[in-house]
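Structure tokens please, single chain.
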Amino acid sequence: MEKPFIIGITGGSGSGKTRFLKELLSGFDGRYVTCISQDDYYRPREYQLVDKNGELNFDRPESIDYEHFASDLRALSEGKAVEKLEYTFNNPDVEPQKLVRKSAPVILVEGIFIFHYQKISELIDLKVFIDAKDYIKLQRRLKRDREERGYDADDVLYKYENHIMPSYHKYIAPYKEEADLVVPNNKDFDKALMVIRSLIDSKIIEQQ
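Here you go.
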């Protein structure tokens, strides 16, 4: 098996990374394209940093067990399978499932800090940055965290102002210039999706 082609997808919280990834994956068989997400490598709550007001801050590079993350990505790049319990966003009502990831000709790696972590960034062949205006990202974040994760609106706004945006400007936005492809996603990303799907098709054919 040839070395898999690794595509890294990043962007600020609410930029639309998850939706982009889901639509991208929907067009491919799991034998040919697999995905690994930074979200499944959050450290336990007791290891998270707190801000000046004593609030947990999950929006810093230290919140992720990036050594484990990098190790699993490298294993996939070497054709090996990996296992990991999914992260449930601290929801006690959700039972975490065991995730089994098998290697494939194309690997998608997603997360807000994947370009910041050198051990992960250096494995990526194509870097994609999903971009959106700040007010649009906030609207999406509010909707998602309230409806899907049951968070209070005031809590979401506090984290956005004190954790998410400072982290974005320090650890995420600076890597936009390093991206091979920047995808504006204020409305849709159809053209970019088509381009990347075509690239993935070509990489799959190359390895057959």
